[in-house]
Queue: 4 jobs
Job 1
Amino acid sequence: MTKEKPHHTKNESLKRSGTLNPRPDEVGDPLFQEHDFFDPSDVVQVKYEMLRRVLTEGASITETTDTFGYSRPSFYKARQDFEDEGLVGLIPRRRGPRSAHKLTDEIMDFLEQELASDLAPSVETLVERVRTHFGLSIHRRSVERALQRRKRKHQ
């Protein structure tokens, strides 16, 4: 007996992959309105068609970006990403740091020791102790999130 894979809609798959267009209703291009093949929810497909329209058909950047729901700077970024990486370059990337890069294992161990040796120090106290001991300025919210992540990890 084989296990059935759970059925997921295309939008669920796009969301999981980070390619779900957050503003599909802003895509006003007739192809995306009239043909099922063109999906305004697929951000990669929308960006590719926007680039294709300008680069191969010679359409106006301003008119095309308006029609596809993007700004001119977004068009130029998409064009550069496509030129550098091809289709993969059109896949959105998370912005900002990918992890708690300041809160190393050494600092997290220090924080846990501080938590264990004191009667529930405040997050502000922990931030100040890190600043004093390591010479590092860390936002209190970063400390809170890192401690929550580590707690979940050790459960």
Note: Residues 83 and 89 are 8 Å apart (CA to CA).
Job 2
Amino acid sequence: MSHPAGDFNHDGVYNIVDLTDAIARVFSGGAGPFCQDEADSNGDAVFNIVDVTFNISRIFAGGAAPVCGTTGN
């Protein structure tokens, strides 16, 4: 199965569940992403609050499509 960029929970679908999992990680120490590169929605090789805001923009406002990071993880 192919996993899209932004697929924080690695279930093969990029959707609001990925956003909520990412928010939980950033704000309350929730579980980490299955794959760091998939979680890195804006492709800057770091998973952080910027990826959460990127996902909010994509899901709710039609923002740019996610791109995989390049950390190698």
Note: The chain has three helices and no strands.
Job 3
Amino acid sequence: MNTFEKVANLEGYSYVAGIDEAGRGPLAGPVVAAAVIFPPNYKNPAINDSKKLSCRKREILYNIIYIDAIAIGVGVIDSEIIDKVNILQATFIAMREAVRDLSFYPDYLLIDGLHRLQVEIPQKPLVKGDALSVSIAGASIIAKVARDRIMEMYHRQYPHYNFQRNKGYGTKEHCRAIEEFGICKIHRKSFTVKNKPMPQLSLDLFKINERKN
């Protein structure tokens, strides 16, 4: 899991940052990206693609990564910007913000996916990078846990949608809540439910939610 980091180190790069995101697919909430720089030759066989880990395991590893990493950066882009620029561009913005948030500026990037970032740093995109690179896998865990915590916060503001459980994804329960209550402030209006545009927020529910905020 650290082969790509080792290659970059051998090429003279000292601070290799793995970058990944969480939250491209949900109907509500932000997209969150993380950047993680581990020490050279860092190994932790427990660190893996966040999607393959239980919630409890992610929380444990989240704390371990914060202890072991040289630097961690996080970028959060909300639903309003997602609707303005589209989810792919919002993801790129979140990734760039995560890089800027690092306390040590990286000299090389390993990025999960197909695309390069528009930053003046040498970089390598890796398809399924969260299964190939410990730095990207670490970033996937940080991004996932950070986003889950944000959605749990939103659950307290908008309990009708049960964000604590579905994290904004289009589960049957979440879709039924949208059909019943309409959408709230953190729903992505540019997304669709069952191939139909998002229902508009009912005025009564909007007033209820505003009083709770």
Note: The helical segments are 3-10, 55-68, 79-85, 87-100, 134-157, 163-166, 172-181, 203-212.
Job 4
Amino acid sequence: MIIGNAGGGKSTLAKRLSKAKNLPLYRLDALQWNSGWIPTPKEEFERRHNELISQDVWIIDGFASWESIEKRCAVRQTHK
């Protein structure tokens, strides 16, 4: 999970780490926003986010919501 301020290098780090470790990379901006900067409905975002974090391995680039961060942290704790 890579989170931080806009312009801080999250996407660059995520891309390089994904390539170096051969891990799937998911960008939350692509989940949160549709064409024309139309937000994804909350229920759809949550469903798609839950599908991502249920996988065994991933790199997720982005903040989204505090609730989604807590879910990512919780699911990683159960996979240790």
Note: The chain has a mean pLDDT of 91.
